[in-house]
Amino acid sequence: MLATALGVGIGLVAMDGIKTFYGKTPLSGSDKKTNLAQTQTQTQTQTITETKPTANKGLDLNDFSLWPKLDSRMNVLLMGVDSNGHDTERFTGCRSDTMMLASLDPDSKKVSLVSIPRDSRVRIADNHGVEKINSAHAIGGPELAVKTVSEDFGVPVDHYIVIDVQGLKKVFEVLGPVEILIEKPMHYRDRAGRLNIALEPGINKLDAAQLEEYVRYRHDAKGDIGRIERQQWFMRQVKKKLEEPQVLLKLPELCKLAKEYVRTDLTVQDMLKLAGFSKQIQPNKIQTAMLPGEAVTISGGSYWVPQPEASALVLHRLAGAPQSVSVIAANTGATIHGHSSDEALASETTATNDDLTAEYAAAYAAKAPSVIIKYAKGGESAAKNLEGRLKEKGYVVKYQQRGDLADCQHEQVIESSYRADDDFVAKLKEAVPELESYAVVVHLEARALSDFVVVVSPTTVIAAPPPPVPAAIETAKVAPIPSNSF
Fold first, then answer.
1. Which CA distances in Å does 32 have to 11, 20, 26, 198, 418?
2. Domains (ranges, CATH) in the chain?
3. Distance (Å, rounded) from C-alpha 302 to C-alpha 297?
4. Binning pLDDT at 50, 70 and 90, where does residue 45 land?
5. What pLDDT, in 10s, does the model give residues 280-301?
6. Which residues contact 449 (CB under 8 A, 6 or more apart)?
7. pLDDT the model gives residue 88
8. Cα distance between residue 414 and residue 418, in whole Å
9. pLDDT, position 228
């Protein structure tokens, strides 16, 4: 979904019709008049100012760019919707089957994706009662969805992008097959959704219909949670496709599709900032998380109940939100009522990261970082070598865990404990350089068994630790030189 918006932004610049589109919100149809010449002059002036050499720094040609720069964090709410039937108006009265908060941070040069389960039990903004969060779009469109996410989780949301799932399919009909690592056999016939899913595990080139099947499949033990995980891996893998040179030739056609199947409040200037920023992002700089919580049954209905403290910490780290624990507790969960309590919200105080984790950090502040290594059949050697390398660097390896192949297809570092943050990850990857390319997944638990879970795949290669030096040699190294040795 985000890729579609970025493609549209680039395409609009390449098209001759830029004078018509520039300064508008092109996909929503709203018209925000902007003087094109003035905008271009401002952009050029900003670029020259930013790249002007100073007394202490020479001109770096790598810094020079005509792309408008993303100079501060931008949070974009991504939503995927499906129409209610052939005769209904697109984007009207439909629930958001997918909801993901994308946070683009130029300071850390990272992109974070926080998936919000569609069954999350929340208070819908503007006194629309307590519902599953996916109903916000059906009740009041993307604006109400944005307001609900912002108010219920205390997170700033700058923009939104909504894409019809049929549009996603058509986009990849234009782009062509995409190479995707399928984790396990996926077989299911969905008559209502008009899907006949038949996918086999391994690296496969999927056409548009198969890509839709991959991102929508949810008929296993994990249900919607498994689907969210696959959507996050999909977002990582599709980036490679967009880097292919032939994509540039297809941008005008992508723009036409986006005009019909995408709604957003992003201006062209915003899209250009996102597109310019995305060029710098490496796959290992994309962090993903799902809003922490648990599945519960309330009055016969299935809901996802967010865990306030862990959710606040995830949104703080990945989306720059203040840690509004009590706001999340007041607006989500199994016991909330239809109307918010003004007194509860007025008394909200935010905490720093240290304050929030103090109780847990104090319990093991002096303890060495701990790791659980997860592997599948075929990954025994890599797991053994990784354990040796980590122990050599002072890490505590709690144990090796043999898992299902489906759960060990992607190499990843999972942040588990509250103290496992970006600094911890950086030190872990420094200790074992082979982990540098691993994806980072945030899955925080208040009482985690370890700080990290490192997942190695059957194809993972990790060098063995150096053999231990015999004690006799060590003694000889430090023994004094005899006076008659000369």
1. 19, 11, 10, 46, 44
2. 2-53+63-331 (3.40.630.190), 370-455 (3.30.70)
3. 5
4. very low
5. 788 788 899 999 999 999 999 9
6. 372, 398, 416
7. 62
8. 12
9. 85
Segment 383-408, tens digit of pLDDT: 999 999 999 999 999 999 999 999 99
Q: Which of 78, 433, 393 is nearest to 232 (CA)?
A: 78
Model confidence at 353, pLDDT cuts 50, 70, 90, reads: very low
Mean pLDDT in residue range 108-127: 94
**For helices 353-363 and 308-319, angle between their N-to-C axes, nearest 10 degrees:** 120
Residue 249 neighbours by CB under 8 Å, 6+ apart: none
Evaluate if pTM is beyond 0.85: no
The tokens describing 182, both together, are: 């399928």
The pLDDT, as a whole number, for residue 255 is 80
- Alpha-carbon distances, residue 36 vs 24, 167, 265, 412 (angstroms): 11, 30, 19, 45
